[in-house]
Amino acid sequence: MKYYYAVFTIAYILSFLLFNFLIQVISIEISSAIVILIAGSFFTAWHFAEREQRCPLTPKKETINWNQLPAD
Questions:
Q1: Any idea what DSSP says for residue 69?
Q2: CA–CA separation, 2 and 43 (whole Å)
Q3: What is the CA radius of gyration of the chain?
Q4: pLDDT tens digit string along 40-50?
Q5: Cα–chain center distance at 12
Q6: What is the spatial distance between Cα 15 and Cα 3, in angstroms, rounded to a whole number?
Q7: How far are the Cα atoms of 11, 16, 24, 27, 44 from residue 40, in angstroms, in the given order?
Q8: What is the pTM of this model?
Q9: Sign of CA dihedral 62, 67, 68, 72
Q10: Residue 62 burial class via C-beta count within 10 angstroms: exposed 0-12, middle 13-18, buried 19 and up
Q11: What is the end-to-end Cα distance of the chain in Å, rounded?
Q12: Alpha carbon separation from 23 to 31, 42, 45, 59, 66 (Å, rounded)
């Protein structure tokens, strides 16, 4: 599981930098925290499904969701 926390962290940081760059270029003021969390979560789920060749089990989903909450 620690591997997927690292994947989520990297995806979160890259999404954060990308969205902040786009906000500066477009000159709009919005809160992008939800968008960044969704992008990081989608990337992590895609990476898990590709690597493990299956969907995560319900207990693992709950563990991942609870551990990603402090990121916000």
A1: G
A2: 15
A3: 14
A4: 778 878 888 88
A5: 5
A6: 18
A7: 5, 9, 20, 23, 6
A8: 0.60
A9: positive
A10: exposed
A11: 19
A12: 10, 21, 26, 36, 29
